[in-house]
Design a protein that fits this description.
Blueprint lengths: L15 H9 L11 H29 L20 E2 L8 E4 L6 E8 L22 E7 L4 E7 L3 E10 L7 E10 L7 E9 L5 E9 L2 E11 L3 E6 L8 E11 L5 H7 L1 E8 L2 E8 L13 E11 L2 E9 L11 H22 L9 H16 L2 E5 L2 E3 L7 E2 L3 E5 L10 E2 H14 L1 H12 L11 E2 L2 H5 L8 E3 L8 H11 L7 H24 L46 H21 L4 H15 L1 H8 E2 L4 E2 L2 E4 L3 E8 L9 E8 L4 E4 L5 H8 L8 H10 L7 E2 L2 E2 L27 H16 L5 H26 L5 E2 L6 E2 L11 H6 L3
Parallel strand pairs: 18-23
Antiparallel strand pairs: 1-2, 2-3, 3-8, 4-5, 5-6, 6-7, 7-16, 8-15, 9-10, 10-11, 11-16, 12-15, 13-14, 17-20, 18-19, 21-22, 24-25, 26-29, 27-28, 30-31, 32-33
Helix pairs in contact: 1-2, 6-7, 6-9, 7-10, 9-11, 10-11, 11-12, 11-14, 14-16, 16-17
The chain binds 2-acetamido-2-deoxy-beta-D-glucopyranose (NAG) (3 copies).
One 2-acetamido-2-deoxy-beta-D-glucopyranose binds next to loops.
């Protein structure tokens, strides 16, 4: 697959069409006598030439979308072997893999026995909201060496713990300990755990059956893969706890995304007496009459063990290259190593986020630890390609295969990489472990193509793709997403003094700089507006008649109201602010990377000055009618969704009804005048001068008498008086950024308030008051919702503060840790 991709050098001139054409037209030779037929040949020749050239040109142009910026591979994503193994499968309740293209994976499923299930077997595996678990997530996880997670079902709690130990050349050892305890006093509970190991198209695994205490049983899985070399996975020879039935089966699977299906295919049931009632017991066994699917990619070995609760079991992975291991990481060894790493984690947490000093109690601190741990435990490693499309393609084509190390917004609902979420994620991750964050940022920048574009949503590999409806898979190279990685990079630069910067950090900036430049330039050119120094999000559909307001998915704020009639005349104030911010960060990096070329930094600084010129900003985006910053475009407020009857195109069929948008006023070029997150951007990204009248206005309105944005739980996304407030966008599309409280933007708000409260200016006192109040509201509500529901949520209800949307959402909602510790 990789061979098909053409590598095109960076420096290739853009105007190849003309260049090549010129060469085909030879000047007439001296002895040449021009005749009519020559002219005909010439014209035909030229025509064919142009035809051929334009074909070549369009092939070349169309290849650009899937041509990497430059070869990178392992140069950028260097394996840090101590972080080779990890819980990099955030989409499953418990699973580990290595950072390899075709990793050996391990995972866990479970099933409560002796229940007579009427529908599908509730075999738990991938994180699903439909499982309705009372709570699950990492209570402690350091992003590298250990983790402790509780999974709370109605009647019992599973605790999954792991510890890793370095040794040898292939990523070392690890051990899992799974503990189960009942939450149900009366009835005994029998639970089956299904541990599995699976290959992904390379390597081999084999079970070792030996005579144990309870007869013949699976005691080991032995295997070998390209990166891991030889290894052994060990199971206990003696099972503690009551019962301790065990089963094992070796199977073939179509791929990692089909492992659960494979288990179900091998599942059999027998009748069993349980408290004098007939119940079913499910077990894995070879079922010769259910044959393997034709295209198998994985070998899977399942190890099923069934216990009465409570129980405890350990599974030990040992790398054969780790030769002088003194002991096996199990039993008391495991307990003491876990305790000592956990202790280090607690101390580091206290040092990095001194929450006690901020007046928080043990429960609030545990909440913050869980938020951070879920961000870290939610880091996934993916390998594969996106499907992308440019204007030169009629059908989607493959991006190149590549690694991506990324945190994910939600383990259940969005277990994959999202560009604009990631910048927010890395604000938190970088405060905890800067080198991990740098690795993640580099890995994202590895996605830059030769045009300077990064696909917004990264759906890599079968496991990731199996979670996404097909219409959302294809990424278009005209589409942007807020360049929030600059937020993270800026906060990394702020963390080190430019004079005392370490070699490693300098290297990091040097490495990412050329890619950032390309990315920045892509924004500055492809997302430019009609007027100089204005910007416009691409990707809005102008011809939809079902949307109340055509969505701007690319801005990250999906259905936040913009100009009602998308057009080239639009200019978006949030994008302009993002560009101002990015220009500043680029200038800062250029100073470090190219101190010898002052003009390099100056170029960005000049654009930054222009984009932060408060007068110019006012001219372009300040709506003095409404006293707010606003988008500008072809717009009317008077749009409505109505149910209409349409004639059926099929003759003789009854008419159909559809909900469509109608306009009760002709749109015209004007400010959009919606009051909400978008109008706050010059404040959020600190573009406004501290003595600006507009800042004054924004601060006054923030908690004005009408509380248009202010709530007890944070700032709502859209004024409750806006004509689109909490309106559906189509019949099938509930509101999303039309009132809900989102934590990423609230984070930017407290951060900006903190900024304006500490710089000299007439409004510092006012900013300080708002800062305190907003921070308190946010922390209080997120903590309260977490205590009540067990989760952090995608967004929060502006009327009652309730968590809503997908959960757990420990992407940017976990920024609450930074708000608590006041690190912005
Ligand atoms: C396998 O085949 C046997 C004999 O035909 C049948 O009784 C049994 O139900 C089949 N098992 C499954 C799981 O289909
Ligand atoms: C961004 O684009 C504008 C308009 O084309 C240009 O004048 C400016 O120099 C660009 N900035 C940078 C840093 O490339
Ligand atoms: C605004 O949109 C309307 C409806 O599509 C169109 O007729 C009109 O020409 C547009 N106005 C401008 C200035 O683009």
């Amino acid at each position: 697959m990789a061979g098909v991709r053409k590598r095109i050098p960076n420096s290739r001139p853009g105007g190849s069409h003309l260049l090549l054409t010129n060469r085909t037209v030879n000047p007439p030779k001296k002895r040449f006598k021009l005749e009519a037929r020559h002219l005909v040949f010439l014209v035909v020749g030229l025509g064919v030439g142009f035809g051929v050239m334009s074909v070549i040109n369009s092939i070349w142009m169309s290849s650009r979308v899937y041509t990497p910026f430059e070869r990178q591979e392992d140069d950028l994503v260097k394996y840090d072997m101590s972080k080779f193994w990890g819980t990099y499968r955030p989409q499953v309740y418990m699973g580990m893999k290595t950072k390899s293209p075709q990793s050996l994976v391990t995972g866990l499923m479970w099933l409560q026995q002796y229940e007579n299930y009427r529908t599908d077997l509730p075999l738990r595996h991938t994180c699903e909201q439909g499982d309705k678990l009372l709570r699950y997530g990492w209570l402690a996880h350091d992003g590298g060496r250990f983790g402790i997670q509780d999974i709370v079902e109605r009647d019992f709690v599973l605790r999954t713990e792991f510890v890793k130990r370095d040794g040898g050349d292939n990523g070392g050892d690890w051990t899992w300990r799974i503990t189960g305890r009942s939450q149900n006093d009366g009835n005994p509970i029998a639970l089956s755990l299904f541990f599995y190991a699976a290959t992904d198209g390379q390597g081999s695994i084999a079970s070792v059956i030996s005579e144990g205490k309870n007869g013949k049983q699976l005691t080991e899985i032995q295997g070998e893969t390209m990166e891991l070399g030889k290894f052994v996975i060990k199971f206990p020879s003696e099972l503690s706890g009551k019962q301790g039935l065990y089963h094992t089966v070796t199977a073939k699977s179509e791929g990692l995304h089909k492992i659960k299906d494979t288990a179900l295919r091998k599942m059999q049931a027998t009748k069993a007496k349980r408290k004098n009632q007939d119940k079913l017991f499910y077990f894995l066994g070879d079922t010769p009459n259910r044959s393997d699917p034709p295209n198998t990619k994985s070998d899977v070995i399942f190890y099923q063990v069934t216990f009465e609760l409570p129980f405890e079991i350990e599974i030990v992975f040992e790398s054969t290259s780790f030769q002088n291991r003194r002991d096996t990481l199990a039993g008391p060894k495991f307990t003491s190593l876990l305790a000592s790493i956990k202790d280090k984690f607690d101390k580091k947490f206290e040092k990095k986020f001194p929450l006690k000093d901020k007046g928080y109690g043990p429960e609030e601190i545990q909440f913050a630890k869980a938020a951070l741990s879920n961000m870290l435990g939610g880091i996934g490693h993916f390998y594969g390609h996106s499907l992308v499309q440019s204007e030169y393609q009629n059908n989607p084509v493959k991006y190149w295969d590549s690694h991506l190390l990324t945190a994910v917004p939600s383990r259940s609902f969005f277990p994959r990489g999202f560009l604009w979420d990631e910048g927010f994620h890395q604000l938190l991750v970088s405060k905890w472990d800067r080198s991990l964050s740098e690795e993640i940022i580099q890995s994202w920048l590895g996605m830059v193509n030769i045009e300077g574009w990064i696909p917004r949503e990264q759906i890599l590999g079968d496991e990731a793709r199996s979670k996404v409806p097909s219409e959302f898979v294809v990424q278009h190279n005209t589409n942007a997403n807020p360049p929030t990685l600059f937020l993270a990079i800026e906060s990394i630069i702020e963390a080190f003094n430019v004079d005392t910067i370490t070699k490693k950090d300098r290297e990091f900036l040097k490495k990412i700089y050329p890619r950032l430049k390309a990315w920045y330039n892509w924004f500055n050119t492809t997302q430019a507006g009609k007027q100089p120094f204005t910007y416009r999000w691409r990707g809005r559909t102008a011809d939809s008649d079902t949307e109340l307001n055509p969505k701007t998915l690319t801005s990250g704020l999906d259905d936040y109201p913009r100009a009602s009639h998308p057009s080239d005349d639009e200019r978006h104030v949030d994008l302009r602010c993002w560009m101002a911010f990015a220009s500043d960060t680029m200038a800062k990096i250029a100073v470090v990377v190219h101190p010898e070329i002052p003009a390099e930094a100056e170029k960005y600084a000049a654009t930054h000055r222009l984009l932060t010129d408060n007068e110019l900003l006012k001219e372009l985006h300040w709506s003095s009618d409404m006293g707010l910053f606003s988008d500008y475009g072809n717009h009317t407020d008077r749009v409505f969704l109505v149910r209409r009857t349409f004639q059926n195109p099929q003759p003789g069929q009854p008419p159909t009804t559809r909900t469509v948008r109608v306009e009760k006023q002709t749109p015209k070029l004007q400010f959009v005048n919606s009051y909400g997150y978008v109008s706050l951007f010059p404040f959020l990204l600190q573009i406004l001068e501290p003595d600006s009248d507009q800042l004054n206005q924004i601060l006054q309105d923030m908690r004005g008498d009408d509380n248009l944005l202010w709530t007890h739980y944070g700032l709502r996304s859209l004024s409750k008086r806006d004509s689109m407030y909490m309106k559906r966008n189509t019949e099938h599309d509930p509101p999303y950024w039309r009132g809900q409280i989102w934590i990423n933007i609230n984070f930017l708000a407290v951060r900006a308030l903190k900024h304006y409260s500490t710089v000299d200016g007439p409004f510092a006192g006012q900013a300080q008051e708002l800062y305190k109040a907003l921070r308190k509201n946010l922390v209080q509500n997120l903590f309260e919702q977490y205590s009540k529901t067990g989760y952090l949520w995608e967004n929060y209800n502006d009327i009652n503060g309730k968590g809503q949307g997908s959960h757990p959402f420990t992407g940017w909602s976990a920024l609450v840790v930074l708000i608590m510790s006041e690190q912005y």
